[in-house]
């Protein structure tokens, strides 16, 4: 009930911010198309589709637009939990959030869900026509499965995202850190660059990211294999749960640091 | 126990970097609080009055669990602000700034709904409470239901800020300069509400302000804080009484000027006589206890055929008290 109340409040806040800010609304709608278009353009301009099919085993257009959606959705989770404390600090709402009795972990899990839901909807509209073009009516089932898995993968990223956000904000309040975290996660997820091709160290780090297992499951589905599907999803859940106590602690450290230096009240 | 807030020997130092060049800097330690102690009771408005940098906001922030003290103790509703912060947060309503602290693209009501969720109010309770508060603060008449926060005037923002502090119906309110920059009608409305909240609903209110008039008008007790120490404490009247030889008897009379000196020089008090138009003189007598000499002077003036136009004992203002205690003299 409590989480539902927070989630509802977050939905109202984010939808209010997006729907009432034209630039944000336009950006949200065109973002998936732009991202997928850019990825395809980039892929085609420097590589051979035939070679891609030989090496990866999937039609590059399908692979790339799916990868774009995966990355966008999962990065949104990390972005939102990283950005929100800074945003709250700039607009002066942070002291009221810290001085409120709300469960911090519940709040931070709820924070990225509204934007994720919006991205999934626009993502669906951007990739569904291409799936239908390639797979016919079966494409609808396939795209729904893929979008559901992306949603699941993004949600399993919450706890790790919160761990990262808490630690980063404990060290520094700079938004510039986002620019370092974002590409790292993008690469390590294995969405564009499948994990099997990664160097050993990156491969190991990638294994520790819950969503990367869901990404692997999605790649498997695109290749027509569901062999390890449940195992990969279970791994993602287990990892997300393992990070849960860490995410609580990380938020606690952040809050302690803010309180020890004094929350800015402007 | 009637103490809503107990503060004992609270000390807070800030370390700030002073830059002397591109790469050179040194750390300066500023003592924001140097061992302040006070209490606030339920049903009471305690004003924390002091110049800029006196330590008012630091005190509020510590009590609101937004800042850790270096030493000393503070209890809010019986809970230690450091060790039991989460319990303290359930007992306080805070108002820290007027201009900021809300989401610009949400209406006033939507903002309140968001913060009600943070306070754990369920849908029904939240709606009831928000309806009540919006009516109480007359925010409905100002369009808080449909206007976005970014379209609010400063007065509306202040009311919305107070509305948020009241959301959880907390028994203790910490209000940091709630009328700063407001126009007189908005400031008056806020003051009336604050008074009602303490005296009718029994809330304990710690109220910081620069405004002497306001402090005198609404505070039951005032703590004068300067450079991190409480320099004086009491009701507005008690504080005024603490200033030596400041009270003044002002008399306006008509008659022969030389006769006035003969009457006044017998008094053990300083006086000034100023000649005005049409044979009117303005007399100001400084006395520690003017009521003791007031009747005597009146009788002597009447006996010497002076026409009394007006006479009054002027109380020192709270501003005089403030300046006396913050600067050491008047």
Secondary-structure map:
The complex is a heterodimer of chains A (266) and B (330).
Chain A: H1 2-19, H2 22-46, H3 49-56, H4 60-91, H5 94-98, H6 104-110, H7 113-135, H8 138-156, H9 158-171, H10 177-188, H11 200-207, H12 210-222, H13 229-261
Helix pairs in contact in A: 2-4, 2-7, 4-7, 4-8, 4-9, 4-10, 4-12, 7-8, 8-12, 9-13, 12-13
Chain B: E1 3-19, E2 25-41, E3 45-49, H1 56-63, E4 71-76, E5 79-80, H2 85-89, E6 92-95, H3 108-118, H4 123-136, H5 154-166, E7 172-176, H6 184-199, E8 204-209, H7 212-218, E9 221-226, E10 229-234, H8 236-241, E11 248-254, H9 257-264, E12 270-275, E13 280-286, H10 290-303, E14 307-314, H11 318-327
Parallel strand pairs in B: 3-8, 3-9, 6-7, 7-8
Antiparallel strand pairs in B: 1-2, 1-4, 4-5, 9-10, 11-13, 11-14, 12-13
Helix pairs in contact in B: 3-4
Structural summary, described in words:
The complex is a heterodimer of chains A (266) and B (330). Chain A is mainly alpha-helical. Chain A has one domain (3-261). Helix content of chain A is 82%, strand content 0%. Chain A has 13 helices and no strands. Chain A has helices at residues 2-19, 22-46, 49-56, 60-91, 94-98, 104-110, 113-135, 138-156, 158-171, 177-188, 200-207, 210-222, 229-261. In chain A, helix 7 (113-135) runs antiparallel to helix 8. Chain B is built from eleven helices and 14 strands. Chain B has 330 residues and is α/β, with parallel strands linked by helices. In chain B, a hairpin with a 2-residue loop joins strand 4 (71-76) and strand 5 (79-80). In chain B, the strands form three sheets. Chain B has a six-stranded mixed beta sheet with strand order 6-7-8-3-9-10, sandwiched between helices. A four-stranded antiparallel beta sheet of chain B has the order 2-1-4-5. In chain B, strands 12-13-11-14 form a four-stranded antiparallel beta sheet, covered by helices on one side. Chain B has helices at 56-63, 85-89, 108-118, 123-136, 154-166, 184-199, 212-218, 236-241, 257-264, 290-303, 318-327; strands at residues 3-19, 25-41, 45-49, 71-76, 79-80, 92-95, 172-176, 204-209, 221-226, 229-234, 248-254, 270-275, 280-286, 307-314. Classes of the chains: A mainly alpha (266), B alpha/beta (330). The A-B interface holds A 1-2, 5-6, 8-9, 12-13, 16-17, 20-21, 91-93, 95-102, 107, 259-260, 262-263, 265-266 and B 14, 57-58, 61, 64-68, 85-86, 89-90, 92, 94, 96-97, 99-106, 110, 113-123, 148, 164, 176.
């Amino acid at each position: 009930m409590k989480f539902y109340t927070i989630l509802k409040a977050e939905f109202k806040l984010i939808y209010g911010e997006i729907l009432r800010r034209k630039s944000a609304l336009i950006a949200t709608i065109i973002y998936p198309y732009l991202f997928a278009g850019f990825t395809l353009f980039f892929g085609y301009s420097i590589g051979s589709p035939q070679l891609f099919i030989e090496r990866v085993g999937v039609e590059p257009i399908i692979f790339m637009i799916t990868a774009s959606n995966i990355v966008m959705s999962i990065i949104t989770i990390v972005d939102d939990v990283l950005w929100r404390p800074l945003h709250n600090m700039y607009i002066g709402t942070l002291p009221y959030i810290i001085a409120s009795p709300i469960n911090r972990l519940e709040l931070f899990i709820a924070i990225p869900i509204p934007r994720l839901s919006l991205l999934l909807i626009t993502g669906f509209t951007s990739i569904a026509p291409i799936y239908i073009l390639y797979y016919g009516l079966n494409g609808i089932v396939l795209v729904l499965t893929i979008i559901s898995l992306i949603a699941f993968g993004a949600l399993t990223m919450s706890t790790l995202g919160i761990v990262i956000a808490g630690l980063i904000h404990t060290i520094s309040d700079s938004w510039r850190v986002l620019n370092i975290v974002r590409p790292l996660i993008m690469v390590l997820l294995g969405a564009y660059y499948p994990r099997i091709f990664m160097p050993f160290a990156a491969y190991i780090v990638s294994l520790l990211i819950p969503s990367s297992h869901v990404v692997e499951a999605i790649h498997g589905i695109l290749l027509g294999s569901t062999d390890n599907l449940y195992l990969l999803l279970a791994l993602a859940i287990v990892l997300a749960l393992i990070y849960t106590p860490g995410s609580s602690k990380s938020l606690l450290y952040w809050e302690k640091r803010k309180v020890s230096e004094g929350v800015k009240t402007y | 126990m009637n103490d809503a807030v107990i503060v004992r020997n609270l000390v807070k130092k800030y370390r700030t970097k002073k830059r002397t060049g591109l790469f050179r800097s040194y750390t300066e330690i500023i003592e924001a609080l140097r061992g302040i102690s006070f209490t606030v009771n339920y049903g009471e408005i305690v004003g924390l009055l002091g110049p800029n940098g006196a330590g008012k906001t630091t005190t509020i922030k510590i009590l609101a669990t937004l800042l850790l003290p270096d030493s000393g103790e503070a209890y809010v509703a019986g809970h230690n602000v450091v060790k039991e912060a989460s319990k303290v947060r359930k007992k306080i309503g805070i108002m820290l700034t007027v201009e900021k602290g809300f989401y610009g693209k949400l209406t006033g009501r939507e903002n309140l709904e968001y913060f009600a969720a943070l306070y754990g109010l369920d849908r029904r309770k939240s709606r009831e409470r928000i309806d009540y508060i919006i009516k109480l603060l007359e925010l409905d008449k100002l369009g808080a239901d449909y206007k976005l926060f970014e379209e609010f005037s400063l007065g509306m923002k202040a009311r919305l800020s107070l509305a948020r502090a009241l959301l959880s119906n907390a028994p203790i309110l910490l209000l940091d300069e709630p009328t700063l920059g407001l126009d007189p009608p908005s400031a008056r409305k806020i003051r009336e509400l604050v008074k009602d909240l303490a005296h009718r609903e029994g809330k304990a209110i710690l109220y910081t302000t620069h405004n002497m008039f306001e402090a005198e008008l609404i505070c039951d007790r005032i703590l004068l804080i300067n450079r991190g120490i409480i320099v004086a404490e009491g009701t507005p009247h008690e504080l005024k009484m603490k200033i030596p030889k400041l009270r003044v008897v002002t008399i306006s009379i008509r008659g022969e000027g030389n006769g006035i000196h003969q009457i006044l020089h017998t008094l053990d008090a300083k006086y000034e006589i100023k000649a005005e138009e049409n044979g009117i003189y303005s007399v100001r007598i400084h006395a520690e206890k003017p009521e003791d000499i007031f009747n005597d002077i009146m009788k002597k003036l009447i006996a010497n055929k002076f026409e009394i136009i007006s006479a009054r004992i002027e109380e020192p203002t709270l501003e005089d008290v403030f300046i006396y205690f913050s600067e050491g003299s008047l």
